[in-house]
Amino acid sequence: MTTVDHKTDSVIKIDPSELDCLRSNVLKSQIATYRCLARNLPVSDSLLNSCSYKSQLANLIQNHLQQEQSNPNGIVLTQTSKANDQNNIDTSSTFSSATDMYRWLIQSNQTNEEKTVNRTQKHPIYFNPLYNQQERDKRALNRISNRLQELEHMPANMNAELRTRALIELKSLKLLQFQKQLRSEVLNTMKKDTLIETTLNPRAYKRPKRHQLREARSTEYNERQRKLEIKQRKHAKHQEFLNAILTHARDFREYHRRYTMATMRMNKSIQAYFANNERELIKEKKRQERERLITLMNNDEEGYRKLVDEKKDARLALLLSQTDAYIDSLKQLVRQHQQANRSHARLDKTNTNKSEESRRPVVNSPSINQKSTTTTSTIDQTGNDKAIRDAVKIAATNEDDEYDAKESYYSIAHRIVEPITEQSKMLVGGQLKPYQLQGLEWLVSLYDKN
User: Hey, is 203 helix, strand or coil?
Assistant: First the structure.
């Protein structure tokens, strides 16, 4: 390989073997760095510097420059000769004078001629497995020693698990010589016991055993005993299997019997719970109905509505609301009718007063006075009811037209009330109840109103 140094403007030739050695060293240092990083071990600065190919190549070039500067008057000669058609060999040397260079050229030509003559006489080089095995063992020993040094110089701030693994590996590597010794001893004992004949036939030195009749009988007896024992074991195993199946079936039936009993108890308890709840609900409904009837019998409308609200009966609430609407409309109609009757009564009264004044006689005679007294007495006897009604009408006119919002329809429609406290003696066959007496009072008021 040829390189140019720009600082000194000189040409430097480097041997390819040196470059190969440089590349192998860089690769080894990179592998060692990777192993340290994989094991969480520290990496030294020298190892890091040796991983760079450019820095190593620069160091090599610097070494060559220093060597050239140490021999400034030397003459460099590069001789290229063709050893054969496929290989080229470059040789470089440094000489102190021209005569030394000439002598070296003559000697090199002679050696090249001898090499070309003797090359055909040399035997080909074959692969040596022993050498390869030795080199592999050396590399393994070097790796083991490097690994031992790394494990012995472990950092103190390592993880506990990694430190345990590293200690196990260190102790196993320290037992390498003991393992080798043990293996060698095992191999030596095996070699002593093993011969060529025994390897081919392990029973070569074993004496054959002669069988006798007694031994045959004993063998037959033992065979029968063995078969009998096998049969008994099979029978016992089969019996255990059957017993296990029977116990499992018994446990299975018992489990499901308990489960069905538990479900039946649960169903009974649920049915009893719902029956009790239904019974309580029926009792509560009956009690609420009794309370509603009592409130209706006592004319307690507010209490009745409160009971309906507590029960939260939508149908009853709807019926009550519609009934209230109808009653309100009837109240309005009754009020309008009563006002119309009052106005007509007022007009009739004014008209009667005017007619009486016009019909009043001017001359006072005893006959007339007698007639008037008789008429007035008859009027007084026959017109008591009319006077009472007129008084009621006058009292009604004096009342305020604005009715109370809470006034009932019965009190509005039935202004004239005849209280009935006891049953008439004409009615026979039993006594009327209080609410029946109230109904009779209502019928009487309807009769009075025509």
Answer: coil
Please count the CA atoms within 13 angstroms of the CA of 159 that sit on its side-chain side: 6
**CA diameter of the chain:** 210
The 10 Å Cβ neighbour count of residue 158 is 15
pLDDT in tens, 207-256: 777 767 777 888 889 999 999 999 999 999 999 999 999 999 999 999 99
What per-residue confidence (pLDDT) applies to 33?
83
Residues 292, 331: one domain?
no
Nearest C-alpha neighbor of 335 from the set 260, 255, 396, 250: 396
Q: Which residues, at least 6 apart from 158, have a Cβ–Cβ distance to it below 8 Å? A: 40, 166
Question: Which pTM does this prediction carry?
Answer: 0.25
Assigned domain for 97 exists:
no
Cβ contacts of residue 346 below 8 Å, gap of 6+? 397
What is the DSSP secondary-structure string of 72-128? TT-EEEEEEEESSSS-EEEEEEEESSHHHHHHHHHHHHHHHHHHHHHTTTSPPPPP-
Whether 333 is in a domain gets the answer yes
- The C-alpha atoms of residue 75 and residue 97 are separated, in whole angstroms, by 8
Torsion, CA 316, CA 319, CA 322, CA 324, rounded to 10: -60
Give one DSSP letter per residue of 34-49, joined into a string.
HHHHHTT----HHHHH
Copy the structure tokens of residue 200. Answer: 């081919």
- Answer yes or no: is 107 within a domain: no
36 domain residue, yes or no: yes
How far CA 395 is from CA of 78, 167, 407, 418, in Å, comes to 159, 124, 18, 17
Say which residues have a Cβ less than 8 Å from residue 408's Cβ, sequence separation at least 6: 301
H/E element, 219: helix 213-297
